[in-house]
Structures are given as structure tokens and as C-alpha cells.
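User: Fold this, then the next.

Assistant: Folding the first:
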Amino acid sequence: MNPADSTQFLTQTAQFTEVETLQKMAKQQEVQQAASQVLAASSMIGRPVTYSLTAGGGPGVPTPTHVMSVRGSLPKDAAVGATATATTDVFTNQGAKVPLELNFTKTATGWNVQASTHGTKLGNPVAITFDASGDHSSSDLTIPAAALDGIVGTTGAWPQTGITLAFGAANDPTRLQLASGPASVVVAEQDGNDGQTATGIVTGVHITADGPQLVIGGQQIPYTSVTDVRS
């Protein structure tokens, strides 16, 4: 019985239209941002990344290195005495970072690998055998804790099982193998960290309501936790 003033009605209608337009724009921006995040996350698959362990309020507990993933190739026609080196950092139970080298040497019977740090050998060289097709036929090897204790200041600071050198399963195209050309052997990743940041290779992406989750080492890591991406 008390109709609104026509001017007020038009003003209010315009305001409602403006609010609705702004809401639509905000929704479109959210959709575009989500799509951009999914695209960026997908581009990381197969690449090594560094990510924060405390970005989401995590406790920052260090994890010692248990496994190093060794990938790539060694030259199948290499002369006896030929060498190749792969380097990485490994972590003690307390999260101390230690540089580690894997030195590969061609022998009269095949290849062996010697772990060392700062020029100090850790244990003895161990043979890696390959079959006729060039695939490694020896099991994954282990640097025992007793050998790792040879690193000054780290005695008793390693996992009791030592550190496993994982060469890759038969269905892994990046597995360690003999091939033509120069050596390309690398430590693709290791599973230890200092409690603050960690590294690993992205193997997949899960889309969730909270944004993309990267699959790294079998765990789901928020896309927004990534601090560095390498080729």
C-alpha cells in the first residue's frame, strides 16, 4: 500500500545489478585462478621441486635419508677406468645436511660405485651388474650405517638400515641402465629433509577443493608450498 519512490526503486535496482555483476566477476576470477593453478601444477609433473614443510603450520620435524633414487645411464662401451659422478645432499636423524658423492668406475667385469663425502670414502666400492640388454641385474644397494658413521661428527646419527641406492624398477623408463653416449647418471631425489624444506619429483596432481595437490614421494603436497622448480 506504500509503493517505493520510483527514483529509489531504480537506484536500488542498479545497485543490485552492480552487486550481481561484481559477484559474477569474482566467480570468474576464482575459476580462472583455479584453472591457472591446475595448469601450473600439471607442468611440474616429472620435474624436481623444493617445497616448504612449514608453510601450512607444520611442526618442522626433520626426516633422515633412507633412500636415494639413482637414475640415468652409464656408457656401455666405456673403457676400463672410465668414471662418472652423481652428487646430492643427504640428511641425518637430526636433519643435518651432508654432501654425498656416488663415484662410478668401469672395471674389467662391469661397473662399481663408491660413496664418499669431501673426498673421504664411505665403506668399500660395490659392484653393479647389468644384463645383456643393459638393464641393471643387481638388487638395490645399501650404504650401511657403519660406513656413514665415517663422516666426521655424525656417528650414530644415521638410520640403522643405512641409505638404500634405488636404481628403478623394470617399468621405470628412467631406471639406471647401460646406453650409448656419455654418462648421464644422477641422484633424482632422496627422501630426507631438515624439517623446513624438502625436495622430490612430482609424479602426479590431484585436484581438490583446497587447490591442486602435488604427488611427491607418494604424499600429497599443496601446490602453494612449492618454493622452487628445476628442469
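Now the next one, as you asked:
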Amino acid sequence: MKTVLSAILLVCTGVANAQKINEFSAQQAVDYASQHSVQVKNALLDILIQEQTNRDVTSVALPQVSGSASATHYLDIPTTLLPGEIIGQPPGTFVPVKFGTKWNAGGALSLNQIIFDGQVFIALKARKGVIDLAKKQEEITEENIKANVFKIYYQLVASKTQISLLNANIARLQKLQHDIGVMFDNGFAEKIDIDKLTVQLANLETEKLKANNAISNGYSGLKLLMGMPIKDSLVLTDSLSDDQIREGVLAGSQGNYKDRKDYQALEISSKLNELNIRRYKLSQIPTISFNANYSKQAQRNKFDFFDNGQWFTTSFIGLQLHIPIFSGFSTRAKIANAKLALNKIQNQQEALKISIDNDIQNAQNNFATAIATMDFQKKNMTLAEKVYEQTKKKYEIGTGSATDINTAQTDLKAAQTNYVQALYDAIIAKIDFLKATGKL
């Protein structure tokens, strides 16, 4: 028995350790996603990849030093033909002669340094721009994750309100069913009235079951988006209120193109394309580089290079001037293509401006409509509750019918559903508005 209890304790401890409980506000959920989302992680890795690419570009402008070593053993020494006249033979004849030794060895160091190359200088100048573009793409990815996390988070918060209203409706109908049951026992109600309430209760329980299932799936979806293990527990600590939805929106009502990260990315791309045009133009002017070499060579009939013997030195330094003259109009085509690419970026900027204006206008309209709808549905829900209570009292004193109270209950439930949906629509409209204005 003791062994069994110990085993159960170990299993329970293992489960407790495997499941981590996270109590997150909406902002904490966003912060978690920024650190654990795969999309954000990969965007950050793209920045690191670009940094390494920049180091590779920088290396082109630094001295290039290389070394070499060789050892050759001639199984047959190469033969050279000398004119026969040098030893008194008739003209047109040749004498085969072997020059050299069985073993040859050598070692060398060479250095090359670019002094002037317009394309390299432009590449060095573009390094910061490409890093900025990679960072901006990461910010765009993070902003999209942030918006989606907020939307799912508050959808789940609104769903909790829906569950609370369903529980209240179930409790209300259960009490009504009890009260009508008492009236039935005393001959003041019909059995069909109780049956109708039983059907309504069954429908509410089914709706609650479906709502809880949707919420469970929503939590899994939120964890997946955040990069959280599905086995971990997630508790949402934020609430959702009318005042909270209205808060902070007026501060972002004035949109500015430069506040949008996608517009900032296009600006960086435009500058990089301008540098690309300059790069191709500078490829038409001469380049200058410095080079140097130092080498040692030795010849032996035996492999005794590390013994006493003479090594012969060769060294030189020099400048190399490369003058491009004609490349078959390739450079001209590259410049034209780069200019066309820049024109495309500029067209995208103008199109994005129009799109941003449209986004802001639509977001403003949607948010104003969502707020008005939310206020209206809240008042409508309060009124439906009053109608239900008054109808219930009239039924209890015998001046109302079961049809009236069933209708009032149906209207109340519809009003509550509409309010929960309006509440969620309003928070979504706020998130879309803040994103449209670049204030999210």
C-alpha cells in the first residue's frame, strides 16, 4: 500500500512539474509572444544573418593575405630541346637536355589591398541600411503578432462574460422552473409550462457546452500564437469594460505616414535602391589595388630541405589599375534596372499612403460605429432584464402568460448575446484603429 501511495505521489509531482501556470495580462501575453513566437525568433535571426553578411562585405575592403607551400618530386625530370648548333650539329637539329633537380619546394605569402573601388565603398555605406531594413521587418512581424494576440486575448475575455451571462440565465430559469413547479403543485400552472422551461434549460446547457469548447480551442490557439507549450496553463487576468475600450484612442486619432512601420520599411528600401544606382554608376570608373608577394624556393636532389642548403628569395610590390572600357552595355542595363526598381518603390510608397488614409478612415468609422453599437446593446440588455423581471412578476400573480415570459427570456438572451458580440467588436475596432495609425 505504501509503495502504491508513493508511486501516485511521484506521478502527481511529475504532472505538476510538467504543467506551468501562467497568469498573464494582455500586455504580458504580448511580451511573452515577442520572446517565444517562432515568427519573431526567425525575424531576429534574419537580423543576425544580415550582420554576418555585413561582416563579409566589410572583409572585401580589408587586406587579403594568403599563404602557400608546395613540394614536388619529379619521377622524370622534364626534358628541354636545345638547338643542335650550340654543340656543332647541323641547323634544324635539337639536343634533348634535362634541367633541374628531383625535388623542388617553395613557400609564399601574398597580400592584396583595395585602394579605391566605388562599388565596395557603396556596399560599405549600405551596411547600416540593410540592418535597419531587417530590424524594421522584425518590428512589422512583432506588430502583427501583437495585434493578433490582443484580438484573441480579448475574445477569450469576452467569452468569459458570455459564460457568466449563460450561467445567470441558467440560474434564472432554474429558479423560474422551481417557482412554476410550486404553482403547478397548487394548481395554478400547467405541465406544459414546466416542459417549455426544461427545453430552454437544455438549450442553454448545450450552448454553454459549445461555448466552453470554443474557449478551450481559443486558449490553444492563443498559446500556439504566443509560442507557449500547449500543456502549460494560461490564466487571463485582464477584464474588458466600456471605459477600457474608449481609453487612449483619441491620442492616436491623427495618423502620420511615418508612424507606420511598413511605410518606414519602404523608405529604407528606397534609400537602398538609390545606393544601388550609385553602385552601378561607380562601376564605370577605374579601380586601384595594391599587391605584394614574398616567396622562397629551393631545389634538391634529395628531400633534405630542412638541412643546410640554399633557399632563393623572390619578392615584389605593385599597384594594379583596372580601367573598364566596354562591357557590352551591361552596366547601362543594370543602371536602368536599378532606376526602374526605385520607381517601383516610389509607386509603392504613394499607393501605401492612399492605403493608410483608407485604413485610418475605415478604422475611425468602424470604431465609432462599434462604440455606438456597444452602448446601444448595453442599454438594450438592461432593458430586457427589466422586461423579464416585470413579466415574471405578472406571471406569478396570474396576470401574465407563459408565452409572455418565454418571449421575455428569449429577448433577454438575444440582448445579452448581442452585447457580448458588440463588446468584442468594439475592442477589435480599437486594435485595428491603433494599428492603422501606427500607435499599437
